[in-house]
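Notes from the 1:1 (GR / supervisor)

We went over the backlog. Supervisor wanted to see one worked example end to end before approving the batch request, so GR pasted a single chain during the call. The sequence is below; no edits were made to it. Supervisor asked that the structure be written out right there so they could see what the output format looks like.
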Amino acid sequence: MTNLPKDSSVPGEQFEVRQTHPTEDYTPDPSKSLKLSPARQRLVDDIIALYSCEPTIERVKRYTPDCVYDDQFVYANDRYKMAGQWFALPKLFKASKNERYQIVVDEPGIIQFRNEQSWTFKVIPKTATINALVTLSLDPATENSDFIQVKYHKDQANDKDYSHEGLGFSFKKWQADQVMKHLDSPEVAEFEADKGAAKEAVNSYGSGAAEGNAPTKEL
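Structure output shown during the call:
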C-alpha cells in the first residue's frame, strides 16, 4: 500500500503517509475491525491510553526520539515535544474517553484506525466528540519486536490531508514548540535529550488534496 523507508536511521519526516478521503466521515465500526497481532494490539492500546489522558513515560517511549506527530492543531517533530503534548492533555481536559475504534489497515510498516474520542474541557463544561483517521508509521527496527515504536503519527479529522503551509501550519509548529517550556513536568524532562534528534525540513505540498500528493483512499 505505502512505500515507507526500511532504514530506522531515516528521520521521522520521511515516514509520512498521505491520503485524501472521499468524505469527512471517519465513524468507526468495531464489528469490522481487523484483528492485530498481540504486539500491535499492545501498541494501539498504549496510543488509545495516551489519547485518553493517561500518559506515562513508558507509553511516550512508544515513539522514536525523531518521531513526528501531526494533527489539525499540532506539528511536533521530536519526542520531547511529543511528550509535552501528551502530558499537557490532563491539564487541559477534565476527561477524554475513547468511545470506539476500528482498525482499517494492518500492513507491514503501518497501522491505521478510525478513532472516536470524546473530550471534556476543564474550563468550559462541554464535551466534544471527534472522529478521525489515525495513521501510525512504524519504526523498521522495532516493528517485529514486542515493543513497537512509531516514527510518524498522523491524526486526520477532515477529508483532506495537511498541506504543511500557511499561517495555520505556522501556528501548529509554534504551539508544539511552546508547550514544553511552560510545562513543569519531570516526566517530560525525561525526554529533553530527544530535542537533538535527527530532523529534516518539513515537507510542504501546496494542497491537502490529491494534487498535493495525497491520493484518494477509502479507509
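Supervisor's comment: The helical segments are 38-51, 57-60, 79-92, 166-179, 186-189.
Batch request approved.
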